[in-house]
Design brief:
About 35% of the residues lie in helices and about 25% in strands. The protein has about 260 residues and is of the alpha+beta class. It starts with a strand and ends in a 25-residue tail after the last helix.
Length: about 260
């Protein structure tokens, strides 16, 4: 893969795999060598289900969604990814990808070939640790999502979704209080196991309560503590919200609705 000279960005500094890409010259100049990255556009696929696994990727900018196809051919969104996230870890088990990854907006990724990764892991304890840490985090995120899907009502799920995004952006050195939802409301509903109308009601109610401000896809969190209260409260759901079963199942309308 071609290389070029550039200054290390703040995203590169926070990247868990930067030791593979960034090499400080012997004379300690400011400039460093950085692996080239590729630009993708909205709806482009990074890889598809059953494609051969030959690399992992690091999302440098933009955002991505992952999805699986059900037995009936319906798409189930399994996650959203943002700058700094590792992509393609699903391919280790069978040597082929089990998911499809599509870009939600113009984005760029850094590619690390599996052969290159294998050699780096053999020679670097820190790279081995960072890769395993990334895998562990992905597993923990899946466990947390399943817990939320089974134990939370609609308003709690949506509050958790916004808080998780806020925390993720903050960990990347980005704004935790003001960010764009690059995914559509249809995608959010699919991911959370809600109807699209339920997602719209959640946004409207949180804005009415002056907890967030919504401007098209831009979200400003005005009161983080009250958003946290929505997550923690056992009675967070108003009579206007629909209680949900686990992800992927049909919503059931309460008797009082």
């Amino acid at each position: 893969m071609s290389q070029y000279v550039a200054q290390q960005s703040s995203l590169c500094q926070k990247c868990s795999m930067s030791a593979m890409c960034i090499e400080k010259p012997c004379d300690s100049k400011v400039n460093v060598k950085v692996r080239s990255h590729k630009i993708f556009h909205k709806s482009d696929a990074l890889f598809r289900d059953d494609e051969r696994f030959d690399a992992i990727y690091i999302l440098r900018s933009g955002s991505v969604k992952s999805s699986l196809l059900s037995g009936t051919g319906q798409e189930q969104i399994t996650g959203f990814y943002f700058p700094g996230d590792l992509l393609g870890l699903d391919g280790f088990e069978k040597g082929a990808h089990s998911q499809t990854l599509k870009f939600l907006e113009t984005s760029s990724v850094c590619r690390i070939a599996f052969s290159e990764l294998d050699a780096a892991m053999a020679n670097s304890q820190s790279i081995r640790f960072n890769l395993l840490q990334g895998m562990s985090q992905a597993l923990n995120d899946d466990d947390k999502f399943l817990l939320n899907a089974h134990c939370m009502n609609a308003s709690q799920k949506f509050a958790s979704f916004l808080l998780n995004l806020s925390n993720k952006f903050e960990s990347r050195g980005l704004s935790s209080h003001n960010f764009d939802l690059s995914m559509s409301r249809v995608d959010i509903a699919n991911y959370l196991g809600m109807a699209v109308e339920t997602v719209s009601r959640q946004l409207t109610q949180l804005q009415k309560d002056h907890i967030i401000e919504v401007n098209k896809r831009n979200i400003s969190i005005i009161d983080v503590s009250r958003l946290q209260d929505c997550l923690n409260s056992e009675k967070a759901m108003s009579k206007h919200f629909i209680p949900l079963m686990s992800k992927g199942f049909t919503s059931q309308v309460s008797a009082s609705h």
